[in-house]
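Figure caption, in words: inputs first, then the predicted bound structure.
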Amino acid sequence: MKKDLQSMVNVAVFASGSGSNFENIATSDLPLSIKVLIVDNKDAKAIERAKRLNVPYEIVERSGKTKEEFEAEILNILKDKNIEYILLAGFMKILSAEFIDRYDRKIINIHPSLLPSFKGKNGILDAYNYGVKVSGVTVHYVDSGIDTGEIIDQEPVVLRDDDTLEIFEENIHKAEYKLYIRALKKVLEVKE
Ligand code: GRF
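Bound structure (5-O-phosphono-beta-D-ribofuranosylamine present):
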């Protein structure tokens, strides 16, 4: 599929850390244009990726301001860039219900477990420590709960008895790269 400039959807990606999911989306052939990467952490490796990929980025730190001020700053950027979808990719701040309401069914997240199991920020480790035989990844719309929004798509990952945590993490990330693209194709109604 070729990117057609006429039908590109403007998106913002939010990240706090490594940004490998951001890079995966940025280098995909999805009909979207990442107008901005928003990071809340000036040391995020995602910034290096944005520079290398020529994606504009904004660092919006939370410290020294109220949550309202923090979100107002982000909302201004989104408005300015005419953003239609927000793609969360390892963004570690919880957005307020007011923020989410403004982008109803337009905020999408990837979570490294088969929701509703293993919600929260340690989805991979919690599933590993529990001793599950199958876990996986979920892409879902964001609502005002934590990892509770409507599921768009999921991908299972088998955990073999001799898999180390590192191997399991690697398999989860591989599944994330595949799933986020597949789920976005669904949302954007991309015809293959
Ligand atoms: C991923 O495991 C994602 O599922 C979770 O945070 C992690 C982000 O990784 N929400 P990266 O920054 O995209 O490499």
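Strands lie at 9-15, 32-39, 57-59, 85-88, 107-111, 134-141, 151-158.
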